[in-house]
Write a structure and sequence with these properties.
The protein is mainly beta and 497 residues long. 15% of the residues lie in helices and 39% in strands. A 7-stranded mixed beta sheet has the order 1-2-3-34-35-36-37. The protein has a 4-stranded antiparallel beta sheet with strand order 4-5-6-7, with no helix packed on it. Strands 8-9-10-11 form a 4-stranded antiparallel beta sheet, with no helix packed on it.
Length: 497
């Protein structure tokens, strides 16, 4: 037993080290989640991993690994839930664990079920086999395991999934769960034809949530309280550990008599609220909802109008509706400077946008004042798209210089050159941390005659021409092609910096 524990500890540190090294070699601070494809090639079946920047356009890295356990040239990906890929090969279902991507051939990947046994699959987790529902997953070594859940009957739907086990913290929580099972500490809210449940995966325990009608049940995710779960006559708060609290009686005591499903739930920077369509807005304060005779300023549903004043936060609206505290002061905001109040909405805790101008709230005057957008705000409003209109190119809405183009542009793709990898910066005095990296973004186009590159087009709208590169036979949106073009251009780009 002691030897086994030592092996587990060594494995944890090995995985942390490998993860750190890989991240430091090829990383930017903000990336899209990796996605995976099965490639059928002459010498076998490969799993390809592709990583793109947060703009979902620019490639960061791409690699592939041969799957020695998968030999069927007809193999295909059935589903991908973010943690694992379900593959069908030789009439059998297999899980490919993503965290084992770089070491997957060190383990034996075992099959889950035969294809002819399975009549339904739900969210890559539940399998209906011969009339019985099974939860299926895998352990570190790729070995499959499955739990039969006889209580589940009929149609099955997953409502929410969360990690609720806080026994191990930080990165070690992630890696320890890998050592045991891939989903240790996960809980799922789900429903069948009969009831709504919480399923604790590690305990294989199914607990019915009382008083809910499955066909009427709704779940809303909040910025603060993780979830609201309700049907027409029952309302639950669901906390981060998936513990549920019935607050229906609080609504009843305050005179709410029509069904919850007839109301609209809204969650945003101002706080959460419920519109009952009868002149009342129920605002959430702590773990309760309080009714206020107010309306929303506009369709964004995050600013309130009460007695012809505008309020930007639930707390202020509550104080105004019941000003019993001797220290009470007016919590409304002055929107007289706003150009387009019909579109005004919050985009952070203290910043506003009316789709024309940015504003910040001055605490002393309680007035919204015009401001220039911060880098954070620019990031929020970035379109992240490529648009070509005749001979003109627009990247994120910004027009580029295309004077050198002889014909209509064709977008070949984009790739990132990492100058310095992502590093964590600790702030001693603020007890906070940020992440920083430096990279150049290359966007490649062709007019059929030459190849052009825009380097960081937000700052430089003029292209570089790759005079010695023929566009013939170049593949669009192909990582190997883009990497080749980048390597050709890099010495020139560095020299001209």
């Amino acid at each position: 037993m002691k030897h086994l524990i030592q092996q587990i500890i060594l494995l944890i540190f090995y995985l942390v080290f490998i993860d750190f090294v890989q991240a430091s070699q090829t990383s930017v601070c903000h990336t899209d989640s990796p996605y995976y494809d099965l490639l059928v090639e002459k010498d076998g079946i490969y799993l390809q991993e592709t990583i793109k920047a947060e703009n979902k356009i620019s490639y960061i890295a791409q690699s592939k690994i041969r799957l020695k356990e998968i030999t069927d040239k007809g193999a295909r990906i059935i589903s991908d839930d973010g943690d694992r890929i379900l593959v069908l090969s030789n009439a059998k279902y297999f899980f490919i664990p993503k965290h084992l991507y770089r070491t997957i051939n060190q383990y034996k990947i075992t099959s889950l079920f035969n294809e002819n046994e399975v009549s339904k699959i739900v969210s890559n987790k539940f399998f209906l086999v011969s009339g019985n529902w099974y939860y299926a997953s895998y352990a570190l070594d790729g070995e499959s395991y499955k739990h039969k859940i006889p209580e589940l009957k009929g149609n099955l739907e997953i409502i929410a999934v969360a990690v609720v086990n806080n026994k191990y913290l930080g990165r070690f929580n992630h890696f320890w769960s890998i050592v045991l099972k891939d989903d240790e500490g996960y809980q799922i809210i789900l429903k069948d034809d009969n009831a709504v449940y919480v399923y604790d995966i590690s305990k294989n325990k199914l607990e019915k949530i009382p008083h809910l009608t499955p066909s009427q049940t709704h779940l809303i995710q909040s910025r603060n309280t993780p979830y609201y779960l309700y049907d027409d006559d029952t309302f639950y708060l669901i906390d981060k550990d998936y513990k549920y609290t019935d607050i229906t009686e609080e609504f009843n005591l305050q005179g709410k008599y029509n069904g919850f499903t007839k109301a609209e739930m809204h969650t945003n920077w101002s706080g959460d609220s419920m519109d009952t369509k009868d002149g009342l807005i129920w605002i959430k304060i702590f773990n309760s909802f309080k009714p206020v005779k107010a309306t929303y300023l506009n369709a964004y549903k995050d600013l309130y109008v009460y007695h012809n004043k505008v309020y930007s936060h639930n707390w202020a609206l509550q104080d105004e509706a019941a000003p019993s505290d001797p220290s009470y002061r007016d919590g409304s905001i002055d929107i007289s400077n706003v150009k387009n109040p019909g579109e005004l909405h919050k985009i952070s805790s203290s910043e506003y946008f009316d789709n024309q101008q940015y504003y910040s709230l001055e605490e002393n005057s309680r007035r919204l004042e015009k401001k220039e957008p911060s880098a954070y705000l620019k990031l929020l409003t970035t379109k992240d798209d490529i648009e070509i209109r005749e001979k003109r190119i627009f990247i994120d809405g910004q027009q580029l210089n295309t004077d050198k183009f002889q014909d209509a542009p064709i977008f070949l793709g984009s790739i990132v050159d990492i100058i310095s990898p992502c590093v964590r910066i600790m702030h001693e005095y603020y007890h906070d941390e940020t992440y920083d990296s430096k990279e150049d973004y290359y966007y490649f186009f062709t007019d059929g005659k030459k190849v052009y590159a825009y380097i960081n087009p937000r700052e430089n709208q003029k292209p570089k021409v790759l005079h010695n590169v023929s566009p013939r036979n170049l593949k669009a949106n192909d990582y190997d092609t883009l990497k080749k073009l980048l390597n050709i251009l890099l010495p020139t780009a560095k020299k001209n910096d």
